[in-house]
Design brief:
The complex is a heterotetramer, with two copies of chain A (289 residues) and two copies of chain B (380 residues). Chain A is built from nine helices and 13 strands. By secondary structure, chain A is an alpha/beta fold. In chain A, strands 3-4-2-1-5-6-7 form a seven-stranded mixed sheet, sandwiched between helices. In chain A, strands 9-8-11-10-12-13 form a six-stranded mixed sheet, sandwiched between helices. Chain B folds into three domains: 72 residues, ATP-grasp fold, A domain (Dna Ligase, domain 1, 2-Layer Sandwich); 130 residues, ATP-grasp fold, B domain (D-amino Acid Aminotransferase, Chain A, domain 1), CATH 3.30.470.20; 144 residues, Succinyl-CoA synthetase domains (Rossmann fold, 3-Layer(aba) Sandwich), CATH 3.40.50.261. The chains are: A alpha/beta (289), B alpha+beta (380).
């Protein structure tokens, strides 16, 4: 089992004719993902590496029975692409695009909250269910099928942890990069709920970072509602307040909310051990299993 | 991007929010002239893009030209939180009976903007928020509806703003929301919004942060960002397109991906060192980008050692290694030890390719960081 | 029993300090309506005929435990007043104001659809439950307590029918003026559902008119879901296409939708007899009871 | 309020929608000059605010100045659906390969605007809607989000618009939505939107209705409404603030409340008469308003009898009766019989007060209407 995506997912790639879209569509297809269509306005009727392109997402979904979208559309046009995907409708929309204006995302978030579609991202590496399908830009090679769910606000930090997990024989059910922006679709609680409901996920790794209060909310959820054990990691302990650390969402506010200390304390309060190093997180997962 | 106070006030004034008369000047003599022009008492205010200028000595009240000269003398050229003051705003002081706080910011959790009103203006609002959260009324705004007049009124009346100025204050709140909406602001506030004895409201300070990701559609605001002040290294990193933050330590850090770079900083601290910077080199690792990143890090005199931490992902480790080798040969002399750790796809091949005459190679993140910390402490 | 309003309703009047608001508040209070507050920005702390005024609807609702609002605010400010009332939140909002721009009402309608509040109107005479409470500008004298529910898009036509009902000894449970605008809150189907669920309403009179397709939808509802008998009247049989007959919503389109014929046919199809004159409608109600 | 074609085209052109070159003229000679200026073939189009001008002979295509003169001669001064043509638009004919239909209107049932696109433009779109509803793609727009680019694209691609012009057509649709939104339009359409051989789109016709209730915030559009054409009686009624519609019959009708007045019309028809007008006098019934209403109805030469039907409501019947008496004494002569029926609060007192030298009083709506129909038929 897995969450969000599996070998049956039928995927449309929005922005398939762009450089990134084309490259990663190939990578996804090579990994085994069932990419059934592309969607690019004005490019309907063309093909990219044999994948048919449609002018609209609704047209692609209807013709190819797609249920999932991956979005590689540039930031200025991304909100429109996301609204289109949410309206199609689809089951899952994964937004890879980095740099979408916050107000555009506020509109998209509002729309997403009115639909049953799972929106993942933006500014995220994607979602992968090892040996079944990957959506996005994650390097498929480092993942292995197994029992550990992973949810993370960061890309390469995820890879770092996954690499350790896999090399110690701890495969993954699904790994979800929820993205580093201030406003994102699926948040920690949403992903944890899905993992909790997945009988094959026997432990979860949650990689948080400074900024916002999603980790604190996740800690409350873990403490009150979760049986599946969770090990945590929080990046940004040494970040100064008021500075954006790469991710638009990774910022400790001037008033001191969004600190690593607060998040670590909340998780440990909820009996979710937090590793001081990525290796320690994997140690905790080994303890669970 | 944070606007200067004088830039934000210009934006506010254009939108119809009353601001005090003021002049922006860069010399002591101009400051005295400006004070004469706006009248006394006047405030001489450092124009740097940081909060808490008052407490740090960046704002002085003056009552005549000599005092204005003295204040400008003191403030111009001073360093506030690491930034040099190049200009001061000389502004007519407002004779007020009340100080309010009004602002609009993004409520990340709710995914929507929130307007805030408080009668406790003129003080550190974040302290008020922490100690007396009920003293600040928060009104969430549905971004697709936009802020309705009743929402502004509700916030203002519930905050207990005097009825005589409530309508004007509500109008300022809606104007701020309009700027938030039209100008892609992420944070916008007036603290204090002064109330005068004859029931007028005046924005005595102005804070406005604009979404960096939206500058492509805010050409006028983007222009004012170009005349950037502050840290030269941050400016250089910005030019190269790196996410860079300068810190106080001596271990320079280069990596790819925000979370992994933050983790590298945290590990430097964990192993007893002190990070000198955050530098996210982004995707791939072509020789030119590697060279640029090292140039920025080496330019920081405090740096005693550099840890270079790349997780390969889609870009394979051998390609990354070739990029690093090529970049390092571009330097006549490598000023500090560089520890490299490669991970991910083809990491082993990559580490074999790395030129160990130029860099130290470590197999794990932990060992790489420990080695760099050792170098910085003078151990080799 | 009754629908929407009764003697326990606690009413706030928006626009209570205006000429119309003041006059009709007196009329409502004289009828026995429990008017507990007024709401007018900047007038908080004042009183109108002993009724306390608040600056905001939320403030009035909190202080006086109001659950119902009647809105007499001029058209240019009415949408804001309605949004405020919907947000308070209240159980029932009755908008008397005539001449609210359609786009403003589209926004209000969108908001109302996200709440559980019943919005009645705008451009309507109000709602009355005889001998208990009246909201709006209906003349209380002509109504009498009884078994007949009444729902109408028109004001004086309602009075005409009610006058006949009352003079023939047929009292009313509740009469609802839903208003003559193209976009209204509670429509025929909403009101019919409420009457159907009210055990005391033994027959319903529905006064429709040309324009739109609400009567046709109501006919479907009557035919498929209603046990309570309904007698109908449709005004505007002689109206030419393309002309607005007084009400903004009373217009037969150029393409011939919204005609009286279509509405009459739909109702009769649904076994709801339609009177050719107001008196005939009352005859039909007599037949039912 | 319906704009003239030339007014709507000006609005469209200002918003960036391509329209043909054209000139508005009021004389035959100007029409010929205008045709010479815009080139041939040219269209001479009657400017009256009704649909179906083409079928009714209000549009002619001309190929030289003589034809232009002849067409203008014929069209200027003609009556189209009761309205006299005072001006014609002389417009360059567009050489097209395709005719599309695009429009935005209010979907009453859904309470939201709906955009419509069809490749079946250039014909009566309402006939297409009735016979082949699938040939018109309808895309509902959430008014608080506003029309998103993808919604316009979706409608255009699903309608089967050629990919070569799809982007431009989508852009026209979004522009129409923008006008709908900014200008308080209730209905706005281009039929046909012509596609030329070199893949350009041109609005060959333009329809725009503006919400009467929103004219208070559309001062420019309200101004163009003032230069109203058409029926003098409708103009006079409008001046007095009455809702008035002129019809073909001989029984004049005055009443209060749209539904009751419509019902009175219907009853006139039901009892074998023919209504001459709809006139809603509104709330209350002060002498001046009553006199104004009767003035409008009497000014219609077709009227042979008047039925005056007031339901008292909050305004009591005795007050209404006094108003009617006072109003009627203002006329030197009452040109046709007037039948009055009062109902509601204090109706009986009111009917006793009425001056039966001037009016006929009836106790019920049915009898009042019957009596007026009898009068109109010459029976007394």
């Amino acid at each position: 089992m897995s969450i969000l995506v599996d070998a049956d997912s039928r995927v449309v790639v929005q922005g398939i004719t762009g450089g990134e879209g084309k490259f990663h569509t190939r990578q996804m297809t090579e990994y085994g993902t069932n990419v059934v269509a592309g969607a690019v306005p004005g490019r309907g009727g063309q093909e990219v590496d044999g994948t048919p392109v449609y002018d609209t997402v609704a047209g692609a979904a209807r013709a190819e029975d797609a249920d999932t979208s991956v979005v590689f559309v540039p930031p200025a046009f991304a909100a429109d692409a996301l609204l289109e995907a949410l309206d199609a409708p689809l089951d899952l929309v994964v937004a890879i695009t980095e740099g979408i204006p916050q107000q555009d995302m506020a509109t998209v978030y509002r729309k997403a909250s009115e639909t049953d579609t799972h929106l993942v991202g933006p500014n995220c590496p994607g979602v992968i269910t090892p040996d079944e399908a990957k959506l996005g830009i994650l390097p498929g090679d480092i993942f292995a099928d197994g029992d550990v769910g992973l949810v993370s606000r960061s890309g390469t930090l995820t890879y770092q942890v996954v690499d350790s997990l896999t090399s110690r024989g701890l495969g993954q059910t699904t790994a979800v990069g929820i993205g580093g922006d201030p406003i994102i679709g699926t948040d920690f609680v949403d992903a944890l709920e899905l993992f909790e409901a997945d009988p094959d996920t026997r432990a979860v790794v949650m990689c948080g970072e400074i900024g916002g209060e999603d980790e604190e909310e996740a800690a409350r959820y873990i403490g009150e509602r979760m049986d599946t054990p969770v090990a945590g990691f929080i990046a940004g302990r040494t970040a100064p307040p008021g500075k954006r650390m790469g991710h638009a969402g990774a910022i400790v506010s001037g008033s001191g909310t969004g600190t690593a200390e607060s998040k670590i304390a909340a998780l440990e309060e909820a009996s979710a051990p937090v590793g001081d190093t990525p290796e320690e997180v994997v140690d905790r997962v080994e303890d669970f299993l | 991007m944070k606007l200067h106070e004088h830039q934000a006030k210009e934006v506010f004034a254009d939108a119809g929010i009353p601001v005090p008369e003021s002049r922006l000047v860069a010399t002591v003599e101009e400051a005295a002239e400006a004070a004469e022009a706006v009248g006394y008492p006047a405030a001489v205010k450092a124009q740097v893009r940081v909060g808490g200028r008052g407490k740090a000595g960046g704002i002085e009240l003056v009552d005549d030209a000599d005092e204005a000269r003295a204040a400008a003398e003191e403030i111009l050229g001073m360093e506030l939180k690491g930034l040099r003051v190049d200009e001061v705003l000389v502004e007519a002081a407002v004779d007020f009976v009340d100080e309010l706080y009004v602002g609009v910011t993004m409520d990340r959790g709710a995914g929507e903007p929130v307007a805030m009103v408080s009668t406790r203006g003129g003080v550190d609002i974040e302290a008020v928020a922490a100690e007396e959260p009920d003293a600040i009324v928060r009104e969430g705004v549905d971004p697709v509806f936009g802020m309705q007049p009743y929402e502004a009124r509700k916030a203002v009346y519930e905050a207990g703003v005097d009825r005589a100025v409530a309508g004007d204050v509500a109008s300022v709140v809606r104007t701020l929301y309009g700027l938030w909406d039209d100008d892609d602001a992420t944070e916008i506030e007036v603290n204090p919004l002064m109330v005068t004895a004859d029931d007028e409201v005046v924005a005595a300070d102005a804070v406005m942060n604009v979404d960096d990701d939206a500058l492509f559609r805010q050409p006028e605001l983007a222009e004012s960002a170009e005349a950037t002040d502050g840290d030269n290294l941050e400016a250089k990193a910005d030019e190269y397109g790196f996410d860079y933050v300068r810190l106080d330590g001596d271990v320079g850090i280069v990596g790819n991906g925000a979370g992994l770079v933050m983790t590298t900083l945290d590990l430097v601290d964990y192993y007893g060192g002190a990070p000198a910077n955050f530098l996210d080199i982004g995707g791939g690792a072509k020789a030119e980008r590697v060279a640029n990143a090292l140039e920025v890090v080496f330019a920081d005199d405090s740096v005693e050692a550099v840890v270079f931490n790349i997780f390969g992902g889609i870009t394979r480790g051998d390609e990354v290694a070739r990029g690093i080798n090529e970049a390092l040969t571009q330097f006549d002399e490598i000023p500090t030890p560089v520890v490299v750790r490669l991970a991910g796809t083809n990491a082993e091949e990559g580490m074999e390719i790395l030129n160990t005459d130029l860099v130290t190679v470590e197999a794990t993140l932990e060992s790489a960081v420990q080695r760099a910390v050792d170098y910085a402490e003078g151990e080799t």
